[in-house]
Amino acid sequence: MAVAWAQWNHVTKVDPDKALHDEDSYADIVDTGTDAIIVGGTTNVTEARVQSILDALSAVEIPIFVEPTYRPSSHTEALSGYLLPIVLNADDTLWITGAHHEWIRLSDLEWESVHPEAYIVLNPASAVATYTQADCDLDVDDVVAYVELAEQILGQQIVYLEYSGTLGDPDVVAAVQDTLSSAQLFYGGGIHDYESAYRMANVADTVIVGDVLHEAGIEAVEETVRGAKDGQNES
Ligand SMILES: CC(C)=CCC/C(C)=C/CC/C(C)=C/CC/C(C)=C/COP(=O)(O)OP(=O)(O)O
Ligand SMILES: O=P(O)(O)OC[C@@H](O)CO
Ligand SMILES: [Mg+2]
After folding, report:
1. Which one, out of 23, 84, 140, 224, has a CA that is 20 to 30 A from the CA of 99?
2. Domain-embedded: residue 1
3. Residue bearing the CA closest to ligand 2, atom 9
4. CATH assignment at residue 81
């Protein structure tokens, strides 16, 4: 059976720590044509906040995944599963295996619902870089080596280049795409319009759009969906 994310070209990431724009509702996100929704953020993410977003999305028919930065204690029907970040370039091992180990030790996990993502955090000014003490001082060879490590040594199926808050370098993303054999490349960071979505969809398999939902709203997200579909990388 194909993995859930195999056909995702565009994903919208909802941050529980940020309000929606104007009169937008969570259910409106589906109207943009996005392929899936991820609920997750770095700061002030609690199970209660995530649950109220899941409740608001209960009638939505696209896949919904939670990217936990807290320890989930219950699994709701509406949820397709968890995408669990492993931050390869974190200085603090808590974000590589520590928090994961604790969650596994304290829970009875349904493994068919838990999918790791090999993160490489690349914007030193982002909340996630500060939180995980990520070493973002990496050249393209360093990034590519992390990606090989992720796929060939750790057997990861998802590699996530995380430039949260800023648009990354398409040449780095393209170099990573060339390195991968079968893992899927997620790109996130700074996508805010048709052009930026087109550009990154051209070099990544899946583009993730986050802050623009909260800052500019549903119509701006819709524009990024169009850019991502038109720019879709066919390799
Ligand atoms: C607790 C368990 C079970 C596992 C730990 C999971 C890990 C490693 C979490 C640490 C890495 C992390 C915080 C990942 C989340 C990535 C993410 C949602 C980044 C974007 O965060 P934003 O909150 O959008 O950042 P800004 O506030 O800068 O926009
Ligand atoms: O918020 P932006 O910059 O769109 O980044 C999206 C996502 O990669 C954040 O985890
Ligand atoms: Mg964000």
Report:
1. 140
2. no
3. 164
4. 3.20.20.390
pTM, 2 dp: 0.97
Percentage of the chain surpassing pLDDT 70?
99
Average pLDDT, the chain: 96
* Whether the predicted pLDDT of 77 surpasses 80: no
CA 108 to ligand 2 center in whole angstroms: 30
Q: How many residues does the chain have?
A: 235
| Residue 5 resides in a domain | no
Number of domains the chain is built from: 1
Element (DSSP H or E) covering residue 96 = none
Q: Which residues form ligand 1's pocket by a CB distance below 6 Å?
A: 15, 40-43, 67-71, 84-85, 87, 95, 99-100, 103, 126-128, 131-132, 164-165, 210-211
In a 13 Å sphere around the CA of 59, the CA atoms on its Cβ side amount to 6
Per-residue model confidence (pLDDT) at position 234: 66
Examine residue 49 and state whether it is found in any structural domain, yes or no.
Answer: yes
DSSP letter for each residue of 25-94: -GGGGGGGT-SEEEE--SSS--HHHHHHHHHHTTT--S-EEE--SS------TT--EEEEEEETTBSSGG
Q: Is 205 left (phi over 0), alpha (psi -120 to 50) or beta?
A: alpha
Distance 188 CA to ligand 2 centre (A): 5
| Cα-to-centroid distance, 40 and ligand 1 (Å) | 7
Instruction: Evaluate: CB of 191 within 6 angstroms of ligand 2.
Output: yes
